[in-house]
Design brief:
The complex is a heterodimer of chains A (822) and B (212). Chain A has four domains: 3-221, 3-Layer(aba) Sandwich (Rossmann fold); 228-389, P-loop containing nucleotide triphosphate hydrolases (Rossmann fold, 3-Layer(aba) Sandwich); 495-544, no CATH class; 592-820, no CATH class. Chain A contains 33 helices and 26 strands. In chain A, strand 10 (293-296), helix 14 (302-313) and strand 11 form a beta-alpha-beta unit. In chain A, helix 1 (3-16) packs across helix 3 and helix 6 crosses helix 9 (168-183). The N and C termini of chain A lie far apart (88 Å). In chain B, strands 8, 9, 10, 11, 12, 13, 14, 15 and 16 form a nine-stranded mixed beta sheet that branches. In chain B, strands 1-2-3-4-5-6-7 form a seven-stranded mixed beta sheet. By secondary structure, chain B is of the alpha/beta class. The two termini of chain B are 21 Å apart. Classes of the chains: A alpha/beta (822), B alpha/beta (212). Chains A and B meet through helix 20, strand 23, helix 29 and helix 33 of A and helix 1, helix 2, helix 3, strand 11 and strand 12 of B. Chain A: One of its GO terms (biological process) is DNA repair. Chain A: Residues 251-410 form the Helicase C-terminal domain. Chain A: One of its GO terms (molecular function) is helicase activity. Chain A: It comes from Aquimarina amphilecti.
C-alpha cells in the first residue's frame, strides 16, 4: 500500500469521528512511516495519542496487507507513560482505532497494578501494544530472554517526556532505549513533550548523544496556542493577610463563589497535606458541597482516583481538590476553572495546569492564583508576566548518575547477563553517560562484582559474578529477587498501606509519618478522620473516628523552587515595587503596598542596584537575612558558601534556612557583618573550591545520598505487603553515609551525592552570575529592631541545614549550660 | 581521650568515649552491642558497605583493652549481628590474641550456636548477677538490683540557641539502671527522652560529657 492509501484509511476514520486531523498529526504520520525517530511537542488534549498510534497501525497494515484476517503475534509497540493512572486512558484511545479498523491488534497494560497472573500471561504472549511505566520496562529487562520479547518491536513512544526528563526515571528510559536500539532492529523512538525551554536538548537526551537515531530524527511542533487568563485572588483586607504560611485557608471564602459560578473547578495544591486540609475545611464550612466535591492525590487508592476522574468527565462533580496527580494526561472537557493554591514555582507547571480548563478549541483557559502569604502575591505578579511573554523554563537532564547505572547493570545481570564491552558502547551513546571515563566504568564493574576496588581474602561480597566466558551474571536467587523488588522504588520512602480493621484498602502512607503516631492517635487521610489501631506487617490498621482534631500527614518532597526564569521575573516585579511611582505596578503589587510600607519602616525594599542584608535579634538568636532573589537552589548554594566563608573568620555555628527570596544564617552569637562586608565574602574567586568545602561542612549531601543508596541497591527498602524476612539487612542511608565518609570517601556513589546537591539543579553558571550581580550592587546592611515582613517566611522555615566551625565538645558544653539555666 | 568517673552503690565506673564502661573494683570491662559481622552480612547480600569499617571495631577493642587492662570483658549482648560469616574468623583471631577472660550475655541478635563460642573459649550466659548488680542485654527491672544493659543504642538530642541541634550516642542512667551506648561501627542510635530523673552522658570521639 502506498502512503497515500494508508493516509486515506486514517483520514476516513477521522471523518467518521467527525474530527479533522491537525497538520502536526499528519507530519508525525509521515515522518514515522518514513522510518524516522522524533520528538513531538504537543499539549495535553490535542490528540497527541493519535499522532503516533495511527502511523504505528498504518505501518503494520503496510507490512501485513491481510491484517483483517490474519493476526501476526508478538509485541509491536511500547507506550511509556510516567503515571500509571494514564494507562487506561491511552488503552481506550488506541483500542478504539485498532478495533474500528478491524486490525485484530491487542492492547495490554503492565504496571505496578497488574496482577501476577496477567504478567505471566503477557510473558507467554505479549499484546501488540504494551502500555507501561519506566519501572515496568526495566523489570522486563530483568526477565529472562527479554531480547526475544522485543525483537520485532517497531516503535516505542515516551509520553510526557518533559515529566521524565530531569528525573532519574528519565535516565532509566535513556538506558532502556540504549539496549532496545540493539535488540529491536526495526525500532523507531518517539517522545511526546509539552512545551519546555530546552526542546532540542530533550530530543538529544531521548535519542542519544550524537547518535544515528538522532541524525535520523525530526522535531515536530503542534503550535497550538492557548489563550490563558491569570487572575489573582487578592484578599479584601490586606492588613490582616498573613506574612507567612503555606495553606491559604484564610482565603477560603473567596474561593467558594468561584466554585459556585463554574461548572467544574480543579483546585491544585502543592502538597498532599495541603490537599487534605483544603478538602476538609471546605466541607466543614460549606457542607452543601458534600457529594459534589472530591479529592485526588497520589496516595489515595486507585479505585477512588479512577472514580474521581470518571466523575469529572460525567460532570457530576463541582470541585476537585488535587495535587500534581491531575497535572498530566486525562482529558477533562467539563473543567471550566482552575485555582492554583500557593506558588506553582514554575511557569511550565502553571501553564500546564491552566491548560486543564477550557478544552474546547478557541476557548480561553482561566486560572486563578491564590496566594498563601503576602509575599507570594509578587510571585503572582511575576506569573502574569511569564504567561504574557510565554517564558518557559528548561528541564535539566541528569549527567553521570552512577546509581541508576549500577541498578541497570544489575538488572541486565539478573536477566541474561551482559558483556561489558557491548554494554559500555551502548551506555556511552546515551546523553547521561556520554562523558563517562573508562576508569569510572571499571570502578562500577568492580563495585558490582567485588563490592569495592580491590579483592580482599576474607571478603564474601556477593552480587554480580563473572562467568568463565566473561559474562556478568547474578546467579543468587535472593539477590535477584531483592533487586527486582527494588527496581520500582526509585525515590520513595518506605510506604505502608492503610486499611480498615475490617478490611478495605484506603491508600498508602509514608512510614516516617506513621512512626510518629501512637495507637489511638487520630489522623486525617483521604478526607477521613482515622484512628490508628496498630501497625502490622507494613499495614496500618485503622478505624473511623468521629474526633474533630487530628494530625495531617505532611508528605515529604514537594519542595519546589523557582526556576531561573521565574526568579528573574520575580526580581523585576520586586524592583518595580521599590519605585516611588505607582506606574507599571500590577494589581498584586498595589495590593501589597501596605506590606511594602511596613518593610520600608523597618528596613528597605531593595531596588535593582541594591543588595539587602538585614540583621536582628530574637529569642532564638542572631538572625542575618540576605536577599538575592535568585530562587531556592541558588540560595542553598550561596547560603552554604557564605556560611562557610564566615566560619573561617572565627569559630561559629549556623543554622541555615532558604526560600525563593533569600536565605538566613542564624547563630547563637552575633555575626560581625561589617567584617563580612570588608572581607568581600561574596567574591567569585575560589567559588568552586569553597562551595565543595562548604558541602562537606553542611552535610547537605546526606539528603541526596538517601535516594542514591536506594537506587544503587545499597539500602533495601522492599515493597509494601511483600516485605521480605530481611530484618538483619535493615539499615539507614544515614549510617551508610557515615561509614563512607569515614572509610571510603572516594566511592563514586558517595561523591555523586555531593555533585547532585548543587550541580544538577543549578544550571551552569547560575551561582557565578548571581555572585557577579551582587558584586555590582551596593550592599545595604540594615540592623533592624525586629523581624521584617520580607524576613518572616524565611525565619519561620523549619527545614534547616547546619554548618559549624566550632569544636563539637564546645558546642555540647554551651548547650548544656543553656539547659541548666532553664 | 577523657573519660568520666561515676559512683554507683560505692563502686567506681569509668565511662569511656567509645561506649565501653570499666568497673574498677572488679576489674571488668563492659561492652554493649558490638554487632560484629554486620558489615559482612550486608556485603554477603549485595550491599557494598566499606570493608575498612570491619577492622575499626577490632582496633577500638584493642585500644580500650590497652587503656584499662581488665581481667575480664563482659559483652552485654548483640556481639555478633547475624549468622556466621568470615568476620567470625577475624573475631576468633582477636580472641586468641586477647589474654583476658571473655563472657557474653546473649542478646537478640546472637543466633550463632553456643558451641561455636565455647570452641573459642567464650562463656555464655543469659544474665549475670555480681553483688547488687544485674548485667543483661535487655533493660531489666528487678527488686534490689542495679541493672547494666544494652540493646537500646541510646542517643540524646541536644538543642541550643539559634535552632542548633546535635544528636549523639550516650550512656543513659536511671535510678536503678544504666544503659550503655552501642560500641560497634555501623550501628545507629535511638533517641531517648531526657527527664529530671535521668543522667545522660553524651559521647563524642574525644570526651564523655554529662548533659544533666
Amino acid at each position: 500500500m502506498t502512503q497515500k492509501e494508508l493516509f486515506t484509511i486514517a483520514e476516513s476514520w477521522f471523518q467518521q469521528q467527525q474530527w479533522k486531523s491537525f497538520p502536526f498529526q499528519k507530519q508525525s504520520w509521515k515522518a514515522f512511516l518514513q522510518g524516522k525517530n522524533g520528538l513531538l511537542n504537543a499539549p495535553t488534549g490535542s490528540g497527541k495519542t493519535y499522532s503516533l498510534w495511527v502511523p504505528i497501525v498504518l505501518n503494520y497494515i503496510k507490512d501485513n496487507p491481510d491484517y483483517q484476517t490474519k493476526h501476526k503475534k508478538g509485541l509491536k509497540a511500547i507506550w511509556i507513560t510516567p503515571l500509571r493512572a494514564l494507562s487506561q486512558e491511552i488503552k481506550q484511545a488506541t483500542e478504539r482505532f485498532a478495533e474500528d479498523l478491524n486490525t485484530q491488534l491487542t492492547i495490554g497494560i503492565r504496571t505496578g497494578d497488574t496482577s501476577q497472573k496477567e504478567r505471566a500471561a503477557q510473558k507467554r504472549s505479549m499484546p501488540d501494544l504494551l502500555i507501561t511505566t519506566p519501572e515496568s520496562l526495566q523489570l522486563l529487562l530483568a526477565s529472562k530472554r527479554y531480547d526475544k520479547t522485543f525483537k520485532d518491536c517497531t516503535a516505542i513512544i515516551i509520553d510526557e517526556w518533559h515529566e521524565l526528563l530531569g528525573t532519574k526515571r528519565g535516565v532509566q528510559i535513556e538506558l532502556a532505549l540504549s539496549r532496545l536500539k540493539t535488540v529491536s532492529s526495526k525500532l523507531r523512538i518517539w517522545g511526546i513533550s509539552a512545551t519546555i525551554g530546552n526542546l532540542e536538548q530533550a530530543r538529544e537526551v531521548l535519542l542519544g548523544h550524537q547518535s544515528d537515531a538522532l541524525q535520523n530524527s525530526v522535531l515536530i511542533k503542534a503550535n497550538i496556542k492557548k489563550k490563558i487568563k491569570v487572575k489573582s485572588i487578592i484578599p479584601k483586607e490586606m492588613e490582616t493577610f498573613p506574612w507567612r504560611g503555606h495553606l491559604g485557608i484564610h482565603l477560603l471564602d473567596e474561593v467558594v463563589p468561584i466554585i459556585k459560578r463554574s461548572k467544574t473547578t480543579l483546585l491544585f495544591t502543592n502538597t498532599r497535606s495541603q490537599c487534605e486540609i483544603w478538602f476538609q475545611k471546605i466541607l466543614q464550612k460549606y457542607p452543601e458541597f458534600a457529594g459534589e466535591m472530591a479529592m485526588h492525590h497520589g496516595s489515595i487508592n486507585k479505585e477512588t482516583r479512577l472514580w474521581v476522574e470518571q466523575a469529572i468527565r460525567n460532570e457530576s462533580l463541582k470541585a476537585v481538590v488535587c495535587t500534581s496527580s491531575l497535572d498530566l494526561g486525562v482529558d477533562f472537557a467539563p473543567v471550566e476553572t482552575i485555582i492554583q493554591i500557593g506558588g506553582p514555582k514554575g511557569v511550565a507547571r502553571f501553564l500546564q495546569r491552566a491548560g486543564r480548563s477550557g478544552h474546547q478549541p478557541g476557548k480561553t483557559s482561566v486560572i486563578y492564583f491564590l496566594p498563601t502569604h503576602a509575599i507570594e502575591l509578587i510571585e503572582a505578579s511575576a506569573l502574569q508576566q511569564a504567561v504574557k511573554h510565554n517564558t518557559v523554563e528548561d528541564r535539566i537532564p541528569y549527567l553521570n548518575s552512577y546509581d541508576v547505572l549500577i541498578q541497570y547493570l544489575t538488572t541486565l545481570a539478573v536477566s541474561d547477563g551482559f558483556y561489558p564491552k557491548e554494554i559500555y558502547h551502548e551506555i556511552k551513546s546515551t546523553f547521561c553517560y556520554q562523558a563517562i571515563s573508562e576508569d569510572d566504568w571499571r570502578w562500577i564493574l568492580n563495585f558490582i562484582t567485588i563490592g569495592s576496588q580491590s579483592l580482599q581474602s576474607y571478603d564474601e561480597y556477593k552480587k554480580v559474578e563473572i562467568l568463565q566466558d566473561g559474562l556478568f551474571k547474578v546467579n543468587n536467587r535472593g539477590i535477584a529477587m531483592r533487586h527486582r523488588l527494588q527496581i520500582g522504588t526509585i525515590v520513595s520512602d518506605a510506604v505502608l498501606t492503610v486499611k480498615y480493621l475490617k478490611g478495605g484498602y484506603i491508600g498508602s502512607i509514608e512510614e516516617w509519618f506513621i512512626s510518629k503516631l501512637k495507637p489511638g492517635d487520630v489522623f486525617t487521610f483521604a478526607g477521613r478522620n482515622l484512628e490508628l489501631v496498630r501497625i502490622k506487617e507494613m499495614k496500618v490498621l485503622v478505624r473511623k473516628s468521629s474526633k474533630k482534631t487530628s494530625k495531617v500527614p505532611s508528605w515529604m518532597g514537594g519542595r519546589l523552587t523557582l526556576t531561573s526564569q521565574m526568579s528573574e521575573l520575580l526580581r523585576k516585579e520586586l524592583y518595580k515595587a521599590s519605585s516611588k511611582t505607582d506606574e507599571k505596578k500590577s494589581l498584586e503589587l498595589k495590593a501589597l503596598s501596605h506590606i511594602f510600607q511596613k518593610q520600608q519602616e523597618e528596613s528597605i525594599v531593595p531596588g535593582s542596584d541594591e543588595f539587602l542584608i538585614e540583621t536582628f535579634k530574637t529569642r532564638e538568636g542572631y538572625h542575618a537575612i540576605f536577599y538575592p532573589f535568585e530562587g531556592r537552589f541558588v540560595h542553598e548554594a550561596l547560603g552554604s558558601l557564605l556560611a562557610y566563608r564566615i566560619s573561617l573568620l572565627f569559630p561559629i555555628s549556623f543554622s541555615l534556612a532558604f526560600n525563593d527570596y533569600g536565605f538566613e544564617l542564624l547563630s547563637d552569637q552575633e555575626i560581625d557583618m561589617q567584617q563580612v562586608i570588608d572581607n568581600n565574602l561574596f567574591a567569585t574567586d575560589h567559588m568552586h573550591n569553597d562551595l565543595q568545602k562548604s558541602l562537606n561542612a553542611t552535610e547537605m549531601a546526606r539528603r541526596k545520598f538517601r535516594d542514591i543508596a536506594v537506587i544503587s541497591g545499597m539500602v533495601f527498602t522492599g515493597y509494601p505487603d511483600k516485605m521480605l524476612k530481611s530484618k538483619h539487612l535493615q539499615s539507614s542511608s544515614q549510617l551508610l553515609f557515615n561509614v563512607f565518609r569515614d572509610f571510603e570517601s572516594k566511592n563514586l556513589l558517595y561523591q555523586q551525592s555531593f555533585i547532585e546537591t548543587f550541580e544538577h539543579q543549578l544550571e551552569e553558571g547560575r551561582l557565578q552570575k548571581a555572585l557577579e550581580r551582587i558584586e555590582n550592587q551596593s550592599i545595604v546592611w540594615k540592623s533592624c529592631k525586629k523581624a521584617t515582613p520580607f524576613s518572616f517566611p524565611i525565619i519561620t522555615d523549619r527545614l534547616r541545614e547546619k554548618l559549624s566551625s566550632e569544636k563539637l565538645e564546645d558546642r555540647i558544653k554551651k548547650m548544656v549550660a543553656l539547659l541548666s539555666k532553664k | 581521650m577523657k573519660f568520666q568517673t561515676i559512683q554507683i552503690q560505692n563502686q567506681t565506673f569509668l565511662l569511656h568515649p567509645t561506649g565501653a564502661m570499666f568497673w574498677k573494683e572488679k576489674n571488668i570491662l563492659l561492652i554493649a552491642d558490638l554487632h560484629l559481622g554486620k558489615i559482612s552480612h550486608f556485603r554477603k547480600h549485595g550491599s557494598a558497605v566499606p570493608q575498612e569499617a570491619i577492622l575499626k571495631n577490632f582496633e577500638r577493642l584493642d585500644a580500650v583493652l590497652e587503656t584499662f587492662t581488665p581481667s575480664k570483658v563482659c559483652f552485654l549482648g548483640d556481639l555478633f549481628h547475624s549468622f556466621i560469616n568470615n568476620e567470625w574468623i577475624l573475631f576468633s583471631e582477636w580472641v586468641s590474641r586477647t589474654k583476658v577472660e571473655l563472657l557474653l550475655i546473649v542478646g537478640n541478635h546472637d543466633i550463632i550456636s553456643p558451641l561455636k563460642y565455647e570452641e573459642i573459649g567464650i562463656k555464655l550466659g543469659l544474665e549475670l548477677i555480681l553483688d547488687n548488680f544485674l548485667l543483661s542485654h535487655h533493660p531489666e527491672e528487678r527488686e534490689g538490683l542495679f541493672n547494666f544493659c544494652g540493646h537500646i543504642h541510646p542517643g540524646v538530642l541536644l538543642e541550643g540557641l539559634g535552632k542548633q541541634r546535635l544528636r549523639l550516642p550516650c550512656f543513659y542512667q536511671k535510678e536503678n539502671q544504666l544503659i550503655l551506648p552501642a560500641f560497634g561501627e555501623f550501628t545507629g542510635n535511638h533517641i531517648l527522652e531526657s527527664t529530671k530523673k535521668v543522667k545522660i552522658y553524651a559521647i563524642t570521639k574525644k570526651e564523655v560529657i554529662l548533659i544533666n
